[in-house]
Design brief:
single chain; mainly alpha; 102 residues
């Protein structure tokens, strides 16, 4: 297994923390940067999970990548984004050990 398949732990923690911070009212630029970073991490995560024959997780990460993508933006009310941000941050944080297993 090449190391390119692993997401570095600092990126996992950074993305998770950024998602938790996103529930606060912040400048628009923060959310743009968050969209770019999370889309990359979610696509990377889906690739890792697909390569390791996971059945559901790749699709969850692809769905999150679509929701967070910075090109074709998906718009939700702030309250819905807060739930998505918390769920996504928890998912990445909880899955950190699964990334390191492969």
């Amino acid at each position: 297994m090449g190391s390119f398949k692993l997401i570095p732990v600092p990126i996992i923690y950074l993305t998770s923390i950024m998602l938790f911070i996103a529930i606060a009212p912040l400048p628009y630029g923060y959310y743009t940067i968050l969209r770019i970073i999370t889309t990359g991490v979610f696509l990377w995560s889906s690739f890792i999970m697909l390569e390791n024959n996971e059945s559901i997780l790749p699709w969850v990460f692809i769905l999150l990548a679509i929701i967070f993508n910075p090109i074709l933006k998906v718009y939700f009310p702030k309250e819905i984004w807060a739930v998505i941000d918390i769920f996504s941050g928890l998912l990445i944080f909880v899955m950190r050990n699964k990334y390191m297993q492969y």
